[in-house]
Design goal:
373 residues; seven-stranded mixed β-barrel; nine-stranded mixed sheet; globular; alpha/beta
């Protein structure tokens, strides 16, 4: 079935829908990962975005229930050069087209993804619409009418509505009004869900933390009632500058607890400590981004997914810990005197390399030093 991808600047591509009729829109971005499409699709950080995979063949190992990073697909659409309809892998339980179709998410193939990627690199990420009906002109106008990612609070939209516990494979809601007792013996960690990936929870639990995950709108007063030992700020979608409740809460946390942040959590901590954020031209999305660990001098190959960046150059109390080697943007910082650390990239991978998995042990050590637990 013919499908059109129309961008807000009037550029358009004709391809084929491999999920049937429909229409969807969002910010068009590209991801340079060769594999990991299921983890990418189910990463809530991709809400509001249509993902173009630069690798030409996607779907050849199918999908399975083990490789999800949340309860559902977050991306608005998947754009590929060629979709494999008949996967070959012993773990596969479903094909990629069937998976997307069951979730009501559009997939388009047969377009020149190299040309699309080059266009977005030159002109920047932009709004677009995919549809199996309508004229190009009408679709371009629909793309222009979509909200800009700047000023868009998507973290509150994707966050859990109720506190929950991580069971090891899924989540279980908790009624705090009925009474809550920390069940583990490790440090008590309140984890903010701004669109968290499940592998973050897996790795925090593996470090021995006793986890309680809370919604993005949870106040610092509500957190204080739980008597935690530390706070963790997760990844998530949208513009960090408009997640004001979380910024205000983090400003309080910075004086009371050890705090760590990943991706959106990194940005929120930077804003809470006096920094600013700005939108990158086309963002960093992929599994092969080189990052310099400033302290050790080592180069890490990292998994990344963000469209905004933090500027802390005017804050002498913060030190840069990581730099992106492609464009020299900030990838990590730490407070010089307080137990606060944050990184922009994804140490939990899923998908991607494990070079940066030490971040979770580093946070655990920071909590131990600050609390004795």
């Amino acid at each position: 079935m013919k499908a059109i991808l129309a961008l807000e600047d009037g550029t358009w591509f004709e391809g084929t829908s491999f999920t049937g009729p429909g229409e969807t829109g969002g910010e068009a971005i590209f991801n340079t990962g060769m594999t990991g499409y299921q983890e990418i699709l189910t990463d809530p950080s991709y809400v509001g975005q249509m993902v173009c995979m630069t690798y030409p063949l996607i779907g050849n190992y199918g999908v399975n229930p083990r490789d999800v990073e949340s309860h559902k697909i977050g991306a608005e659409a998947l754009i590929v050069k060629e979709c494999c309809k008949e996967p070959s892998n012993w773990q596969a339980t479903q094909s990629l087209p069937d998976y997307l179709r069951a979730a009501g998410v559009m997939g388009i193939e047969g377009i020149d993804t190299r040309a699309l990627t080059r266009h977005l690199r030159i002109h920047g990420a932009m709004r677009g619409v995919i549809s199996t009906t309508g004229s190009v002109e009408a679709l371009v106008q629909k793309a222009k009418a979509l909200p800009s990612m700047e000023g868009l609070n998507l973290a509150d939209r994707v966050s859990a509505k109720n506190p929950y516990l991580w069971t090891g494979t899924t989540t279980r809601d908790v009624d705090l009004a009925a009474g809550f007792s920390w069940s583990g013996t490790g440090p008590r960690l309140v984890v903010y869900d701004f669109g968290i990936k499940w592998n973050i929870l897996r790795l925090l639990a593996a470090e021995g933390f006793d986890l309680l995950v809370v919604p993005s709108t949870f106040t610092h007063e509500q957190v204080a009632e739980l008597s935690p030992d530390a706070v963790f700020l997760s990844n998530g979608p949208g513009d960090p500058a408009v997640v004001t409740s979380a910024i205000e809460a983090t400003r309080v946390f910075a004086d009371k607890y050890p705090v760590a942040g990943i991706c959106l959590g990194h940005q929120l901590m930077g804003l809470a400590l006096g920094g600013t954020t700005f939108k990158l031209k086309f963002g960093h999305h992929g599994c092969n981004n080189p990052v310099l660990d400033v302290e050790s001098g080592k180069i890490e190959i990292s998994s990344q997914n963000h469209g905004f960046c933090v500027d802390i150059d005017h804050l002498p109390e913060l030190k840069v810990t990581h730099r992106n080697l492609n464009d020299q943007t900030l990838e990590g910082f730490a407070h010089r005197d307080k137990p606060l650390i944050a990184i922009q990239f994804h140490p939990e991978a899923a998908p991607g390399p494990h070079d940066s998995a030490y971040f979770f042990r580093r946070f655990r050590d920071l909590v131990r030093q600050a609390t004795g637990k």
